[in-house]
Structure formats: C-alpha cells, structure tokens
Design goal:
single chain; about 210 residues; alpha+beta; two-stranded antiparallel sheet
C-alpha cells in the first residue's frame, strides 16, 4: 500500500542541507574586485561633491637656455578640475517576527537573517558592478557614472564638455567593426601610456 503523504524515508530522515548558501544568481564582479584590491578605488569622508584635480597640458616654458638669456615667464594654465556628484545605493532587509521565530533553535539549518544580509550585499555589489559599465543616466541619472561615460566625445563628464575641450576625450577610441587584433591593442595601450610611468594595468573585454 502506498504511503499517504511523503513516505517512510522522508518521514523519518532529515534532508541533507548544506550549511552555506551558494550564489548562483549574481554575475562575476571581476573589475569591481580588481579595482578595490589594486588601488583603483579611493574612499572620501565627506564633501558637497567629489572634485578631481586635472593636469591637461604641459608647461610651454620648459626649455633649455644659455647664460643670461631671458627666461620665458608666460603664465601657464593647464590645470583644472572635474566635479562629480555623489551617488547612493541601498538594499532593504526585511524579516518578520514569525520568520525569526521559525528560523530558530535546533530546527534552523542556516541563519535566515544572515542569508538575507548576504543576499543584500551581493545585490548591491551586482547593481554597482552594472553601474560601473554604464553612462550614469539610468534611473533618472541616479545610477553610478560608469566607464561608458568616459569615451563620450560630445557629452559632459565631470562638468567638462568633451566636444569643447578635446583633451578631455578618450585618448584612443576604436569604432570600426573589424576583428580586434594585437596591432590595435598595441596602439590603444601605447596611446594611453604616459612616459612609461603611467600605463594601463587592466584590459576588460567580453567573453567573445
């Protein structure tokens, strides 16, 4: 005769649960983690907005001279600053008194509140990782101003218009549709390098 419900084994034996949750939802955050671990992120303790000083031109008076030759004292510009507004992210964690009571004692397999906290943390990291590759206009421009905004040749980034001030445009932007090869990568890498001291240390591509 068949058992009326779950059967003798399920009625007398606990299911084998792993003690940790495995994240099968959130995508890889390789760039986010790399920036965090390699000096690509800087923490600030306040301020009305974030101001990044810029040096966009060389001093044209730098040259050799001889004896009592008059030195060039032409006033120099070439220094400015970009300004960025703060962006905020949040995730709520809700747990009812009933859930908290049910998830207690010897019946608890994993801590529900801890699991929800981890879920919120991973969700925030995912949302910010997506924002890292955005132009900052998502969610009524409340999203993180990401890397896509960097290569805009006509828009405003950090309060500076790229069309007016061409020195604020990406140093090398490839828009052709042929296969990406070493020659183009070499050109982009060398174009983004300054005097052999300031060179790219991260190259991001899709899987393809």
């Amino acid at each position: 005769m068949a058992d009326p419900n779950v059967g003798v084994i399920l009625s007398t034996t606990l299911k084998k649960y792993r003690k940790t949750l495995v994240d099968n939802i959130h995508k890889s955050n390789a760039v986010w983690v790399y920036l965090k671990d390699n000096g690509g992120m800087r923490e600030e303790d306040g301020g009305e907005r974030i101001v990044e000083p810029l040096m966009y031109a060389l001093n044209s008076t730098a040259k050799s001279y001889s004896g009592y030759e008059a030195l060039d004292t032409t006033p120099q510009d070439g220094i400015d600053s970009a300004e960025f507004n703060w962006k905020q992210y949040s995730a709520s964690i809700s747990i009812s008194g009933k859930e908290e009571r049910q998830n207690a004692g010897t019946s608890r397999i994993i801590n529900l509140l801890d699991a929800k906290t981890k879920q919120a943390e991973l969700s925030l990291m995912q949302a910010m990782s997506v924002g890292l590759f955005s132009d900052g206009t998502g969610n009524a421009s409340k999203d993180l101003t990401g890397l896509v905004a960097l290569d805009d040749t006509a828009g405003t980034y950090g309060g500076i218009n790229s069309a007016t001030y061409t020195w604020w445009q990406a140093g090398n932007k490839e828009t052709t549709s042929e296969a990406l090869g070493l020659a183009k990568m070499r050109t982009a890498f060398n174009g983004a390098s300054v005097g052999g001291k300031d060179v790219p240390d991260l190259i991001v591509t899709t899987q393809t």
